[in-house]
Amino acid sequence: MQKKLFSIDDFIGFGERYGIDYRFPSQASGLFNKEKRMVIQGDVEEMAFSSGFNLTRSDIRVLQPYETTSLHSCPLYMLVVLEGSVMLRLNGEAFVVRAGMAFTARLSEQQVMNASHLADRHLRTLSLGVSPAQGWSSPLLNALLQQWEAHGAPTLLWQVPGFLLSGLQQTQQTSIPPLSRQLMLEGIMLQLLGNALSQRIQGQPKRTPALCGAEQRLENVRRLLEQHPEKEYSLATLAQLAAMSSSSLRVKFRQAYGQSVFDYLRDCRLDLARRYLAEGYSVQQAAWKSGYQHATNFSTAFRRRYGMAPSEMSPC
């Protein structure tokens, strides 16, 4: 099957249907040719379930970075990641949804969700949601939402049970007819919701899933890079923090977050530099304050990621 290209105009259509605001950093360059308007390449399948839920199945490669902000209320939203990782913020709190994990929350004006998608990333995800108007039209969905609200509509980040994950992976086969895929997905997604609700009633899972020692140490490394990207780091120093060898850190970090340690550091530095440029700092100042010693290297990396030179953002 040939992969389809989705443009900024397609994303505007998605946003109107699902109440999402999309932002494209490359647009700031003022370059609007056809190539610049392409955002992702891959398969995006939208489904409306008889139970009242809407699902979007994505198997994509991100061509240019984009950011999302939820605008509409959604009494129950769930994101499942099958490949790659997604970094979310809900009212400023960060969540990393890695492959094999699910994130569930209520979205509203008081609970706004933001996500950043970096270029050159391969993602396979399932997004499930329901609008407030639909939420009470189905007896099954009505009962589920009442139970969910009764338990505080919690924000949960949890590991998908193995048997459900296997079923979801099976639905990704391109040989499955669309109707068969939709029936399979509806059944598995309802099982996922039932599993989450059952564990919540029993007091599990906690707000974030318990991480084993190695996973927690990896997360400590990731947070350090995210919070202080301007500092200098060596693989050996970070490996010492993670209490593992340099080679183990290299392999395990990529498995957990979908990119290498220093690719992640570079992206954090560029995000920081873009904020400095937006605040009015010069290119040289933004480069230095975000950890780059040479403005030339910074400009090359910035253009590669955002599709424009940093000078096109900075007023100086």
Concise structural overview:
The protein has 316 residues and is of the alpha+beta class. 41% of the residues lie in helices and 25% in strands. α6 packs across α7 (246-257).
Question: What profile does the largest beta sheet have?
Answer: 7 strands, antiparallel
Q: Span from first to last CA?
A: 47 Å
Our estimate of the beta-strand percent is 25-35%
The CATH architecture assignment of the largest domain turns out to be Sandwich
Counting DSSP H or I runs of 4 or more residues, the number of helices is 10
Low-confidence stretches: 204-208
Oligomeric state as shown: single chain
Q: What is the name of the CATH superfamily of the largest domain?
A: Jelly Rolls
- Overall form: globular
Quickly name the level 1 CATH class of the largest domain.
Mainly Beta
Number of domains: 2
In order across it, which strands form the biggest sheet?
Answer: 1-3-4-11-6-9-12
